[in-house]
Amino acid sequence: MRVTSEQCLDDGVLEREFTLGEIPGTLWMPESAAPAPLILMAHNNGLPKADARLVARARHCAAGGYAVATIDATGCGDRPRSAADEQARAELRRAFQADEPADNVFESYIGPLVEHAVPDWRTTLDALLALPGISGPVGFSGWTAVGIRVAVVEPRIKAAAFFAGGYVPRASREEARQVTVPLLFLLQWDDEGNPRQRALDLFDTFGTREKTLHANLGGHTGTPWFEVEDGNRFFDRHLK
User: Fold this and answer.
1) Is-contact 154 122, C-beta < 8 A?
2) Residues 172-228: pLDDT tens digits?
């Protein structure tokens, strides 16, 4: 892991930009020297790691005593996308604009993104847990489709908070039965890109016996800030 920049922010959080091979990432940590549990924070497909909403959540978690890391996984953010990825994204935009069914386009685009993203996250996790000041245990927050796979294949994940936005491929819906860690599931009731019944059915599918659903009125980007604070309390219960 190579640190490319480092700065101390005004909320007492240390921010480091890093690269790990071809993977660019950001790590936020409290200034305290005490070892901190780790939260992997993944944004939904295509959005960069520097997205303002993700950064605000990450800094709040870091100020609460966590090491928080995010990356641009393959095909996301500023990382190169294949011609097939670009075509799928264009078809997805066209389907939305025309108010046409987009399940098949979602499947062909999001499915491969998940397959490529999860190895990047596991590689990043290995590198982060080798750093001084990060002790584990580990939580996952954010992108549901990737989070399901990470929670299933990565035994170091001890709790997860998923945002029920975006499409979850068929393979992820099947894998949800194998998710057994404590789960917080956030749903925007009026999410224009995520029919609520699909999200409710997915919540019912998760195999864990300790799962909580928080539903709020509003569209895809309207998650209230108090859910970020509740998310910290959720991780406090399971990671500290």
Assistant:
1) yes
2) 899 999 999 999 999 999 887 778 898 999 999 999 999 999 999 998 888 899 999
Residue 225, domain CATH? 3.40.50.1820
**Token pair recorded at residue 78:** 């500023």
Give the separation between CA 178 and CA 122, rounded to whole angstroms: 18
pTM of the complete model beyond 0.85: yes
How do residues 30-69 score in pLDDT, each as one tens digit?
987 678 999 999 986 666 677 888 899 999 999 999 999 9
Which residue range is the domain that position 11 belongs to?
Answer: 2-239
The tokens of 89 are what?
A: 């994204």
CA-wise closest residue to 134 among 15, 38, 6, 25? 38
CA atoms within 13 A on the CB side of 216: 17
Give the Cα separation of 176 and 119 in Å (integer): 18
* C-alpha of 200 from chain center: 19
126 Cα distance to chain centroid: 17
Cα–Cα distance between 204 and 223 in angstroms, integer? 21
